[in-house]
Amino acid sequence: MTYPRVAAVVPTYNRWCKTQRFLKHFMGQTYGALTIVVVDASSPDGTAERIQQDYGEVTVLQVDDQQFWAGATNAGVRYALNQGYDYIFTINDDAVVAPDHVASMVDLAQRYDADILGNRIDYLAIPGMIWALGTQLVWGTPKFLQLQYHGIPATDLSADVLSQEMLAVDALPGNGVLIHRCVFEQVGLYQDRFLPHYHADSELILRAGRQGFQAYVAPRIVLQDDFAVEQKQQDLRSLAGLRYAFLNRKSHLYVFAIAYILLRYCPWYAYLQTAYYLLKRLIGLSKGRPGSEGLSGS
């Protein structure tokens, strides 16, 4: 039997401890037709050299340090497509998964002919606490990309949800998503110009949805993520804080990314209301509400 070839694309930058932990766990995947492709954004801590020395089976690509999540992931996707892989599995190096994770994802995608399949994401530090079970579009609110079941214990999920092998979703966070090559061939790569770091993952799924691809999430296949407490916490009470939040390409509040999603995907009938709530939210943030997760949930 011939198994589909999978390339796991892992962008990383300058956090060797997490990258090393990821590789120690992920190298134990039971799926035989799997290649790990780490895309290093020229980490000054020597990540690429250490991987080549300690993990010779891993393919290492290097991009410059201005290639953030979208650009680095695109480099891995291009490599996978050029090498003839059937699926690309995007995953971050702060993730921890079971040894049969990839095998379970491929099996599910094959049985249901799903071209886009994401896993449930839980907090590593709080076992059983859900960070996201896919993403839902809710126009007319300041957080129009909402993480489904965010902050809910898995034990509180209804039997209807847990009984499903797959659930249809509007979009997906990019951490643990299996995508068939035909999706990239038809819709293109991640939008790395206007969405260089945050929200490029959701935008690709939204774009694919417009071209007939349905995205799904698997409630019973779980990825645990080692979220940093400070990951999205920003103090917006100073000019420097506001400048970073809205103009830095690595910020989840990057104004060009938010505007791109709004202008491209918001339906006309919800545009004014959504823009109003966004503006209201921005004004509230600038008046001294540090630590907010901002305008969208992914």
Characterize the largest beta sheet: strand count, sense, and whether it forms a barrel.
10 strands, mixed
* Termini Cα gap: 38 Å
- What is the helical fraction, as a range of percent? 25-40%
Number of strands: 12
What structural class should be given to the helix and strand makeup?
Answer: alpha/beta
Strand content: 15-25%
Description:
There is one protein chain. This protein is an alpha/beta fold and 298 residues long. The protein is 36% helix and 20% strand. The protein is built from ten helices and twelve strands. It has helices spanning 16-26, 47-54, 69-82, 101-112, 159-162, 181-187, 200-210, 239-247, 255-265, 268-286; strands spanning 6-12, 34-40, 59-62, 87-90, 95-97, 116-123, 130-132, 135-137, 145-147, 167-169, 177-180, 215-225. The strands form two sheets. Strands 1, 2, 3, 4, 5, 6, 7, 10, 11 and 12 form a ten-stranded mixed beta sheet that branches. A two-stranded antiparallel sheet has the order 8-9. It starts with 5 loop residues before the first strand and ends in a 12-residue tail after the last helix. Mean pLDDT is 90; it is low at 290-298.
Spell out the blueprint of helices and strands.
Blueprint: E1 6-12, H1 16-26, E2 34-40, H2 47-54, E3 59-62, H3 69-82, E4 87-90, E5 95-97, H4 101-112, E6 116-123, E7 130-132, E8 135-137, E9 145-147, H5 159-162, E10 167-169, E11 177-180, H6 181-187, H7 200-210, E12 215-225, H8 239-247, H9 255-265, H10 268-286
Parallel strand pairs: 1-2, 1-4, 2-3, 6-12
Antiparallel strand pairs: 4-11, 5-12, 6-7, 6-11, 8-9, 10-12
